[in-house]
Design goal:
By secondary structure, this protein is mainly beta. It contains 2 helices and 31 strands. Among the domains are: about 45 residues, no CATH class; about 160 residues, YVTN repeat-like/Quinoprotein amine dehydrogenase (Methylamine Dehydrogenase, Chain H, 7 Propeller). It is about 5% helix and about 45% strand.
Length: about 425
């Protein structure tokens, strides 16, 4: 008998039927061999799947979930002398809810009263307000955890710097030294460090009538608007104006009338004893509001068609009639929608709310609201425009208020954060 054509794991099964029909023959594979063949088949199919082109990613995979909106880091400047503060504090801030969550100390440094964040979000700058030992500090900013690392520190070249800001290019910082009455410009290097000063000018003019507070020039605020730098000087009852050279970082006095500049912006004169502290400029650049620390007022200026601010066109009280206690006005800010102005009182311990007439910038008082603490040296309107955060220096807390978009009125949300001696608060998008 010849060699069978069946494989060794096959059997032949014959089913006999009636004599009229031929038998049916099956080749049957035994159970063990069936399992073996199934394994081989699975391996072969797996190989085909691996070699086959992958299907396109789902829409969700191709478009990852965007980062949550309205999430920010916030940094608080403080006073450390004779307080429990360690320096600059960091927070997480949810602009959707107004929730401020402490991250603790971002950097230990002495009396970092006012802060400024570079437009690139990589660096933070602070003034260290310490009399003749005052400094200016540059920090690298870690957005992952809110920590700050000191890059370098330079003498402020004046006494008690109380304000810091950046120019429009992000290449320079401006520092207002209160006690010595001078303004200094420092360049910013590519690595974020501060370089040797490019300008150092001392304010000049007749002193105001308050012998105790206006004993000399007292630069209290400095900002760059266009090609000009404005300086609020509490001692001189003036907002001075300097021309700024963004190439060299130099400051120079504005040209006199009749020069090649046909519409020079001269200093803004305020009534004697006003004591200008801070300034708010409308987004359009048409309205300027100057907060008087000494007489607790807001003074309004309106730009001409040439963009020049001349005489004051209105002065508005910040205190209710009959109030006779001690008060020092502190901060002023315009809502991002341009319809409301806010200013803080220390002593009366309130935020005053005004509506802004859009034609001429006239102010109408809407309310004055207690800040939920003592000595609101500063307040900040958050980047969303939904909330106002008041820093109460003497009660060691930051209190959150909700802003009504229709009326500008503010009301406490019930949230507050404990911070020793808070002075300033700045925000940075967290993404």
């Amino acid at each position: 008998m010849g060699r069978s054509m069946l494989r060794p794991y096959e059997k032949t099964v014959v089913i006999h039927r009636s004599s009229e029909l031929p038998p049916i023959v099956f080749h049957v594979i035994d159970d063990v061999r069936i399992l073996s063949l199934m394994k081989i088949t699975r391996r072969f199919l797996s190989f085909l799947l691996l070699c086959a082109p992958l299907p396109p990613l789902s829409t969700a995979a191709q478009n990852p979930k965007p980062a949550a909106k309205d999430q920010y880091l916030a940094f608080g400047g403080t006073y450390t002398t004779k307080t429990n503060s360690k320096g600059i504090y960091a927070f997480r801030y949810d602009g959707a809810t107004g929730k401020l969550t402490s991250l603790g100390v971002a950097a230990e440094t002495a009396d970092p009263s006012f802060l400024a964040i570079h437009p690139n979000g990589k660096y933070l700058y602070a003034v260290n307000e310490a009399g003749k030992a005052s400094m200016v500090s540059a920090f690298a900013l870690d957005k992952a955890n809110g920590r700050l690392s000191l890059l370098n520190q330079l003498p402020a070249l004046g006494e008690d710097p109380c304000y810091i800001s950046l120019d429009r290019t992000g290449n320079y910082i401006f520092v207002a030294n209160y006690t010595s009455g001078n303004v200094v410009v420092f360049p910013i290097g590519a690595d974020g460090k501060l370089g040797a000063a490019t300008a150092n000018v001392r304010d000049e003019g007749a002193l105001g009538p308050n012998k105790e507070r206006q004993d000399g020039p007292h630069a209290h605020w400095v900002e760059n608007f266009g090609s000009e730098v404005f300086v609020a000087d509490l001692g001189l009852d003036r907002v001075l104006v300097y021309r700024f050279n963004p190439g060299s970082g130099a400051l120079s006095s504005m040209p006199a009338a009749g020069s090649s500049f046909p519409f020079p912006q001269g200093p803004l004169e305020l009534s004697p004893g006003t004591g200008p502290r801070h300034v708010a400029l409308s987004r359009s650049g048409r309205f300027m509001y100057i907060l008087g620390e000494l007489d607790s007022t807001v003074t309004r200026f309106v730009a001409t068609k040439e963009g020049v601010f001349n005489s004051a066109l209105g002065k508005y009280p910040m205190l209710p009639p009959g109030f006779s206690g001690r008060n020092d006005a502190a901060e002023i800010n315009i809502h991002p929608n341009g319809r409301f102005l806010y200013a803080s009182n220390r002593g009366h311990d309130s935020i005053v709310v005004y509506s802004i007439d859009q034609e001429w910038g006239k102010l109408t008082q809407v309310a004055d609201v207690p800040t939920g603490g003592k000595e609101p040296r500063h307040f900040a309107i958050d980047p969303t425009g939904k909330y106002l955060l008041a820093e109460n220096q003497f009660s060691d807390n930051i209190v959150v208020f909700r802003i009504d978009p229709a009326s500008g009125q503010i009301s406490p949300t019930g949230d507050s954060v404990s911070v020793p001696s808070p002075v300033d608060l700045v925000f940075l998008p967290a993404d």
